[in-house]
Amino acid sequence: MLVLxxxxxxxxxxxxxxxxxxxxxxxxxxxxDLHARFGGVVPEVAARKHVEVIGYVVKEAVxxxxxxxxxxxxxxxxxxxxxIGCLLVGVAAAKSLAYTLDVPLVGVHHIEGHIFANALSxxxxxxxxxxxxxxxGHTMLVLVKDKCKYEVLGNTLDxxxxxxxxxxxxxxxxxFPGGPTIDRLSAQGDRAAFNFSRSLSKSKRLDFSFSxxxxxxxxMFKDKDKALLPVPDIAASFxxxxxxxxxxxxxxxAARKGVSAIAVTGGVAMxxxxxxxxxxxxxxxxxxxxxxxxxxxxxxAAMVAAAGTARLAYGDxxxxxxxxxxxxxxxxxx
Length: 334
Ligand code: KG4
Ligand code: ZN
Fold this sequence. Notes:
Layout: E1 2-7, E2 12-19, E3 22-30, H1 32-36, H2 43-64, E4 74-80, H3 84-101, E5 105-109, H4 110-121, E6 129-134, E7 139-146, E8 149-155, H5 161-171, H6 178-186, H7 211-221, H8 231-257, E9 261-265, H9 272-285, E10 288-291, H10 294-297, H11 302-313
Parallel strand pairs: 1-4, 4-5, 6-9, 9-10
Antiparallel strand pairs: 1-2, 2-3, 6-7, 7-8
Helix pairs in contact: 2-3, 4-11, 5-6, 5-7, 6-8, 8-9
The structure holds 5'-O-[(R)-(carboxyoxy)(hydroxy)phosphoryl]adenosine and zinc ion.
């Protein structure tokens, strides 16, 4: 089934054509440069940009796949979880297309989209498995029992991991988004230079917390001359604390649920140290660790089309009254 996916939940305007697990096109118009001067995503600016470019992005997705609008058999759109003004743009576009083309419409939860980026990356993804989905907007540990069957094991109690990367990068004057820069600078730094405390390390909860770590970094250096700070050492030590927290909670979750495979996805899943530590832990403790392909880690519409295809197979078809809902828990769509 040829499915058009549309994703506008945050600052990427994306459209893709996916046919039964094969990605025919995957177009992403990133707004990163637009938001860089603000040091983070400004919701209304993002929504206005989506309105401007969504038509071109859909056209590019169709054209670059070598298809026509008439070939599309269903439209899938991120309708849940994200910035409300941004979601509304994608939902309105998807509804117009589904109505005009007379094809089924399906609403997808953004986190479910990220989970399906794993399935696109690894066609033989073992079920059940534990999935860590970690980005600028969320940090969630999910037991994926089967396609579209989820149990949320843990969630962030405050900031998302990517948000913490971005805030520390801003504090260090490294620009936005901060994750890739901190990742790169950490390679030249000493990750044992500063021992930042790990949140919830003694707790049995599978939740995450990053605001204490962020405050610890800021408090340690806020009165110092920024020009003299050992930035690579701070970056490497901060990154180590984040990675440690993410990996240890994920391993705890995998052990508790008795699974043998762990999947890692979302923008922060591109982090090189996270990949290294997860791979080493997997080898040491006997887990198969699967990372989403880098080009599918960040927000994209191929993952939305893949999730929509699975939901349609369960008969989940949305009406033309589909609306955007920003704060829906993942369990509610399982
Ligand atoms: O999935 P994504 O594109 O958008 C959201 O849903 O948020 O993730 C963006 C986040 C940003 O916070 C960015 O700093 C972070 O992913 N990120 C990274 C890396 N690449 C992107 N964080 C750490 N290391 C990286 N290499
Ligand atoms: Zn995302």
